[in-house]
Structure formats: structure tokens, C-alpha cells
Amino acid sequence: MGSLIDLLPLAYPDAVVVVGAALLGMTAGALGVFAVLRERSLVGDALAHSALPGVAVAFLVTGAKDVGTLLAGAACAGIVGALMMVGIERTSRIRPDAAIGVVLSSFFSLGIVLLTYIASTNNANQAGLEKYLFGQAAGLLERDLIVMAILSAISLTLVALLFRALKTTLFDPNFAGSVGLPVRVLEVAMTALLVVAVIVGLRTVGAILMVAMLVVPTVAARQLAGRLAVVLPVSALIGAVVGVTGALLSARAELPTGPVIVLVGFLVVMACVLLAPGRGVIWRARKLARDRRRTLTEGVMVDIETAIHAGPPPTAAELALVSGRDPRVLRRVLRRLDREGMLARDGDRLHLSEIGAAAAHAVLERRNLWSAWLEHGWQLQLPDAREPNPSDLRASLGDHYADRLQALAVKES
Amino acid sequence: MRSTAETLAAPALEVRRLTASYSSRPVLWDVDATFPMGALSAIVGPNGAGKSTLLKAALGLIATDAGQALIQGRPVKTSRDRVAYVPQRDAVDWDFPITVREVVEMGRYAQIGWVRRVQRSDQTLVADCLERVGMAAYASRQIGQLSGGQRQRVFIARALAQQAQVMVMDEPFAGVDARTEADILGLLQELRNEGRAVIVVHHDLGTVRAAFDWVLLLNVRAIAAGPVADVLTPETLRRAYGAAGGLETEEQEPRWAA
Fold it and tell me: Would you call A40 helix, strand, or coil by DSSP?
């Protein structure tokens, strides 16, 4: 550990902070996956809050201030909290979210009462316990880092060894049970891993905000990756980056570490939720807008084509009336069609240009193909599970089946 | 160790005096039933009759009050490699970060071992299973991008990958389109013709009559079990469905290519 700290081009105290925050972020990031994907994020929150009275009791019993002892106390309290949540859920008719609320608030209150009592005893050793509320990266010792590193190494090795079993249980516990996996044991193991993540991070981030370090990296990583085997390392990496950035910023600005780390994490999540390709909010909104615009434009082209076939070319007002479209929307679409060279105007009256007519015919053909699918699809006997895409049946079914569908429709008429 | 002949003669699944309850309400009461090998069997009954519970209890997935279940004559605990279970489709989170291929690979994990590498032969088998359900082109897709019918096909491919002699499926036809239903039914009949046992929880008595060999009529208790023609009589249906036994006259939904 010492050599790693020496390697970093930073002053010694900063280097300790960086290594500590990286360990915390990596561990919480990877293990938090087992909270978020089980839809148990708040269990992580309750575990973190439950750890606080454990720290206080450990201090009262041993009088020691070293991180190892206090974290052992935190782990015991976390496990008791977890057992209580499961117990309340199983034996009473209280729902899981309510059980979490009860355990979280009562353990946390107990922690505050004990910490206040310790503060009133004027024990010379007690200074610093309040760090476990909001976290403080500064003041970590090298031997604290060694404890954290050992815990991370053990838990991450366990995840690697149990990866398939954990993945199967997370995704489909019924199936996991049917092939003989000990589902209960694995679920307990996942909760135990969360306890480890909490105690690795408790000193740096604090009990109140620890849940963010479990949830934030997973949420961000899920936006970017589609396989658990990728989500896990990406989440660990995001956790480490967030942890280190936040810890350094807080050390420089002399702010509490936990909140600064969480704020950095929030920025990362926002960026991923908004910008991620495929899953990001902006990407999806743009796709939706594009699809809507296309449907609208195609609809108007077909309206014009149909009107021309039925009688004299329509004016914009007539077109609005016939098609039942909002005149303002229609004007906007017509302007767009004009820009794309699809329209040929004859005074007020609207024609389609050559390319406009070709485009309208293509749309009509696609529509005909779709209604042919609805009527004759069952006769196609598709060889596999391909699904028709209404907006482009030819591409989704393949030319062979599109042609057969057209033939079936023609034979009918 | 039993002899092979004995194993072959033993029924695919046998439950004896199976009783299970949620809190104090019994959902399964003293159920005896056998399902033969080489047959397509259905478990039918009204809502809340305990159909899914019967499967879960037989496979040891939920606690039972009494009774036991045998797969090919042996306790379930020692014959997990002989049975493949397809749970209800909506029991899992379809936004889970996993690809179609990985889901089907899950069917191999118990044989490969939970730590060892996936062998080339397993990969080939997984590809074959996907091909068999018509999903070969979707192997690298995220499961969240699939339609309901495609998801069911993936679940069935995973069961195929287990290469088990007994396949147990919970509502595989619920919420799938007509084409998928016809395809799946065809596949189940192929499996039956290979000599395996296929046991399916199902709703639609029409399909059961048309395509299944064996049926268990369940309403908390086992009302009747045996060949379809013997079991599905107006009398037994009335006993299972009560006053709503008029299901008999209900018009059949037209089915694609069924």
C-alpha cells in the first residue's frame, strides 16, 4: 500500500485520500449493482444508517478509535439491521418499503442519541466520531486503507467466483432454484456484500449519504452497458472516478467529503441519463420526435396524393378540412415539404413534385404491405421469430416474404 | 441405483399427497398426480386453482406442508438435471442487463459448472437451441428489446439447452401472439415425439383438447387426471369450474395456423 501511495504524483495526505476514495468508489460501485438490480436500493440506505449505532457502541465498549474496530461495530449493526428488515417482512404483514423505513430511522436515531451521549462524556478520544455522519476523507491513515483494501479484495474476488450464480439468481430466482442453486444463501450473500461496501465507504462518505455511492455508479453504468459482465466493472470505474474527484475537491475546498462526492456523482448520473446513446433521455426524445414528424409528413403527402386523384388539387385550407388536421400543423408540414422539394404549387393549389409523388407512392406501398400483413400474415409461415415492423415491413420481413405478401394480397383482389 | 429400465418406466413427474398453503389458506390440498413420459400434458383449472403453485412446490421452489414429488421415480433434489423449468414470463425483470445468448447459456451453467469456462460445444448447443425457436438472428440482442412472444421463445430455448427429459412450463402461452403460440405448440409436440415429457400450465381448454395427450384438472384438489378425452367431461369440468362450467359452449377464438 505504501509503495502505491508513493507512486502517485501527489503530496502524501492527498495520495492517501485518493487511494481511499478510489477503493471506496470501486467497491461500492461494483457491489451496489446487487442492490440496484434487485430493486433494493433502499436496503443499501438502511444498512448505511444502521451502521451508525454500531460505530458508537464499538467506541463505548472498546474505547478505541481505530477505524478497524469501529467498522467491525458498523458491520455487526448493519447485519442486525438487515436481519430485522427481513424478519419484519417475513413475519408481519408490513411491506418491505415500510420495514426499511422503520429500521432505517430507528437505527439512525439510536446512533445520534449514542453519539450525543459520547460527546457529553468529554472522553478525549471521542473527537472525530461525527465524521461517520457526513464522512471525511482527510485524516484517513495508511493502515485504514489496508483494512479497506483487504475488504474490497475479498468481496470483489467473491463476486468474480460467484458471478454466474449471482447473475442467474438476480435475473431469475425461480429458475436458479430449479437448477439447484441455493437462492436464499445467495440472496443473503448479496446483502452481506452490501454491508461490506457500506463499511468500506462509511468513514469517507458517511452514513447519511453512503447509499449514493451504491446507487449512483450502477445507474450510470446501466445507461452505458447492456451486459452485467460489463455493467459491474464500468460501475466500479465510475465509482472510483467519482470518489477520487469528490474527495480531492472536498479536501481542497475544506468541505465535508460525503456531500461533495455525491454531488459529483449526481453530475455523472445526469450526464449518463441524458446523453447515453440508445437509452439516454435526449436520444430517445429525438427519436420519438423524428418518428412523429415522419408519420405526420407521410400522412400529409398521402392526403395530397389522394385528393389529387379524387378531384382538383386542393388548397391548404381544403386539405386541412378534408384530412381533419390542425391547420397550423399542416402549414408547418407543408413548409417542410416545400423545403425538401416535394411540393409543386399552382397558386393556392397544391401538387406533388416528381420526387414528392414518388415518395407518396412509396408510403402507400408500405401501407398496403402492412394491411396485407394484417390480413394474410398467417399464410406466410415465417421460418423464425422475426417480427414485422409496421413502418418498414420490407426490411423487417425480408424481400422474399414481402413479395409473397404482395402476391397474396393481389390474388385476393 | 435403479436400473435404466425402471427409470424409463417411471412417470416423468409424480406428486404424492402434495399440500401447500399461503398463510392459512390451502392452495394445494392432498394432490396426487402422475404425468407420463413421451406425452404432452396440461395442467388446467380456474384462476387460483394452484396450477403454478403445483409446479413450484413439485420442484421444491416453495415450502410445502406435506407430500413429495418424484422426477422419473427419484426425489427432485437428486434429479435436477432431468427437469427443465420455464417460469412465468413476467416473473423476471426484462430490463435486466443481459443478452439473449446469455439467457440461453444459463441453461448450460448447471452442467458446465458455475465457475468453469463455457466450452465451444456448449456455445454450439446454445446456438442450436436459439435456431430451434427461431431466434438465431437475435442472439446478441438485449432481452429488453424483444416482443412478448420472442421473450417466451428465449425462455424455451434456455430450457432446451438444459437437455432435460422432463420439461415443465408455467403459462408459456400467456400473452403471446397467435403465431408464436402455434410455433411453440409445434415445438412442444416435436419434443414429445422425441420421447420427452412436456408439462404445461395452460388456460385454454380448446387447445388442450386439440393438441394435448394428458391432462390434470386442478382446483386446489386434483379433480381428475388422465388422457384428455377421459378427463375433460362436462361433469368434471363442472366440478372444477363450478357454475362457470359453461366454458363448454364458449366459442373458440380463431387461431393462426393452429
Answer: coil
How many Å apart are CA B194 and CA B191, to the nearest integer?
Answer: 5
Segments in A206-341 forming alpha helices (H): 210-224, 228-253, 257-275, 281-310, 316-323, 327-339
Q: How far is A233 from chain B (nearest CA, A)?
A: 13
The distance from CA A276 to its chain's CA centroid, rounded to whole angstroms, is 11
Query: What pLDDT, on a 0 to 100 scale, did the predictor assign at position B161?
Result: 96
User: What's the angle, vertex CA A257, arms to CA A253 and CA A258, rounded to 5?
Assistant: 140
Spatial separation of the C-alpha atoms in residues B104 and B132, rounded to whole Å: 12
Residue A64 in grid coordinates: 478505541
Nearest CA of chain B to the CA of A292: how many Å?
A: 20
Tell me, what's the pLDDT at A308? 86
The domains of chain A, with CATH numbers, are 2-277 (1.10.3470.10), 283-412 (1.10.10.10)
Report d(CA A317, CA A312) in Å as an integer. 14
> How far is A405 from A407, CA to CA, in rounded Å?
5
What mean pLDDT, rounded, does chain A reach? 89
Q: B115 contacts in A (CB within 8 Å)?
A: 161, 164
Beta partners for residue B42, in sequence order: B200, B215
Instruction: Considering only the beta carbons, identify the residue of A177, A383, A384 that sits closest to B61.
Output: A177
Give Cα separations from A324 to A119, A299, B111 (angstroms).
74, 11, 62
ipTM value:
0.90
Chain B residues with CB under 8 Å of A169 CB are none
B102, B136, B256 ranked by CB distance to A384: nearest: B136
C-beta separation of B46 from B245 below 8 A: no
Instruction: Please check whether residue A378 is in contact with residue B178, taking contact to mean a CB–CB distance below 8 angstroms.
Output: yes
Task: Convert the pLDDT of each residue in B8-57 to its tens digit.
Answer: 568 999 999 999 888 777 888 899 999 999 999 999 998 888 899 999 99
Looking at the DSSP bridge assignments, the partners of residue B219 are B221
Task: Please report, for residues A11, A16, A144, A200, the alpha-carbon distance to residue A2 in angstroms, rounded to integers and kept in the order given.
Answer: 13, 9, 12, 19
Rounded Cα gap, residues B43 and B60, in angstroms: 18
pLDDT value at residue A2 = 67
Nearest to B49 by CA among B18, B26, B81, B65: B26
Q: How far apart are CA B153 and CA B192, in angstroms?
A: 17
Mean pLDDT of all residues in chain B? 87
Given a cut of 80, whether residue B256 has pLDDT beyond it is no
Q: Report the residue of A171, A222, A279, A397 to disrupt the B interface, i.e. the one with the largest count of B CBs within 10 Å.
A: A171
**Average pLDDT estimate for A363-384:** 86
**B163 in Cβ contact with B157 (< 8 Å):** no
pLDDT > 90 in chain A, percent: 45
Q: pLDDT for B47-85, tens place per residue?
A: 888 899 999 999 999 888 898 999 998 998 898 999 999
List b or e across B204-229, with b for residues whose CB sees 16 or more CB atoms inside 10 angstroms. Answer: bbebbeebbbbbbbbbbbbbbbeebe
pLDDT value at residue B243 = 62
Q: Which residue in the block uniquely carries the three cell numbers 478510489?
A: A22
Domain B4-246 -> CATH class: alpha beta
Question: Do B57 and B18 form a contact (C-beta atoms < 8 A)?
Answer: yes
Please state, as a whole number, how many other Cβ atoms lie within 10 Å of the Cβ of residue A29.
Answer: 31
- Residue numbers in A near B56 (CB within 8 A): 174
CA–CA gap between residue B97 and residue A214 (Å, rounded): 17
Q: What is the DSSP letter of A182?
A: -
